[in-house]
DNA sequence: TCGGTAAGCTGACGGCATGACAGGACAAGT
DNA sequence: ACTTGTCCTGTCATGCCGTCAGCTTACCGA
């Protein structure tokens, strides 16, 4: 599937090498959580991992390269997000629950990986195709399901035909990501975490079905 | 009002100094549009402005400091966004038009300032209070109006009481910002710019009024 | 016209991060 | 013990960072 792990100069990495490599990735992750992306330096990551900058450069071309690696691992885990929507109903009380669980699960994922996701978002916004690809991979796991759900309802005539399912689905998902990234803003608006979720679920439900949920 | 413009070492900046300062800011803006934030170096900005790094450090403590300055200028301009909502109606056809114009105006602003807004978003997400303050200043110009509109409808009993107007308003505004930042993603989902806007307007209308618009 | 003063700019410098290389340390098999 | 291939690091040239002293320029009052 994915070829063997290799160093920058082409050697295959053995057991010890992979451990070092992973340690560097872990330390980089921690640093991203604690300091601004712009200030994360190779030398700091190496120091924290108890090794030297030269070692870092054996496994990654630069900080960005290592970040892409972390993001890739996370994107793989994001496949689990599809469970939030697979086989769910959007009608009646079940619909309200689906919306709630989607909001819950998605925001949980985003919060758990917030540091790396910030960087992925930035890279994607700056037009970097590699970051964009990863971001879409993560979002697609939810967006495509959501798009199908909307299309389904549309086919049954429950939603106007001039609605674009992909646009609505994408906008809703992107909304969730942005809210998760900027929860601090909401608290200064006087909105508490606990209040936020049901309101987001309401918006999601409205967007998908066009109607208020029956609770 | 705002004290005189000063250099880092406390001198007041004269006409020439202010021109240089502004030129550095302009060049920094350009650089932010063309290269990743992480790679923007003082020396590059200075070179582009036809001056030396030392001059840059006379006016700004570092790149971040200069970015905050640009962001402040932009936040001042964002006051114009209030016009998009002042005295608008959310009922009937007028409501649909209000939603459309809000989406249009807001996304236009975001696209015009996308480079600097990316950085502000990142800074805010990383927990930097200064960036968060600027971001909220920009968003508040729209969010507070939107919150009032929702509260008003709620007072008339047209919206459920358990809806939190600030949460809904914030989520909708944040959605617009995120969509504007990641339009590229939508095009790979097969959603064109022209299709996107009415669907966003629909979501905004649904969120504010709880009902589908009458077009 | 002529200093005097403050603003404005830059060359130069120590310090640190970067990225490349060669060579030493280490584990595993013979 | 010896060989082999993996793994790590000391070292070095390069380039950016951030600061300072000192030079040039503009303004102003006498």
Automatic annotation (TrEMBL), chains A, B:
InterPro entries: Homeodomain-like_sf, HTH-type_TetR-like_transc_reg, HTH_TetR, Tet_transcr_reg_TetR-rel_C_sf, TetR_C. Keywords: DNA-binding, Transcription, Transcription regulation. Residues 18-78 form the HTH tetR-type domain. Residues 41-60 bind DNA. Gene3D superfamilies: Homeodomain-like, Tetracycline Repressor, domain 2. The keyword Transcription applies. PANTHER family: HTH-TYPE TRANSCRIPTIONAL REGULATOR BETI, HTH-TYPE TRANSCRIPTIONAL REGULATOR RUTR. This is TetR family transcriptional regulator. It comes from Streptomyces thermocoprophilus.
């Amino acid at each position: 599937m994915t070829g063997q792990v290799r160093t920058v100069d082409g050697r295959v990495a053995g057991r010890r090498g992979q451990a070092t490599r992973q340690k560097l990735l872990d330390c980089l992750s921690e640093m991203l959580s604690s300091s601004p992306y712009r200030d994360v330096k190779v030398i700091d990551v190496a120091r924290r991992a108890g090794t030297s900058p030269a070692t870092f450069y054996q496994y990654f071309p630069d900080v960005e390269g290592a970040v892409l690696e972390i993001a890739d691992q996370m994107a793989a885990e994001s496949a689990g997000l599809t469970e939030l929507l697979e086989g769910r109903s959007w009608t009646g009380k079940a619909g309200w629950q689906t919306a709630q669980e989607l909001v819950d699960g998605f925001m949980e994922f985003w919060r758990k990986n917030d540091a790396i996701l910030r960087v992925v978002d930035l890279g994607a916004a700056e037009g970097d195709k590699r970051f964009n690809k990863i971001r879409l991979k993560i979002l697609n796991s939810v967006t495509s399901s959501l798009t199908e759900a909307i299309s389904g309802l549309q086919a049954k005539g429950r939603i106007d035909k001039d609605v674009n399912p992909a646009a609505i689905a994408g906008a809703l998902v992107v909304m969730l990501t942005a809210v998760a990234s900027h929860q601090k803003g909401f608290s200064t608006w006087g909105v508490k975490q606990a209040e936020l979720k049901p309101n987001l679920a309401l918006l999601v439900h409205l967007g998908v079905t066009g109607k208020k949920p029956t609770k």
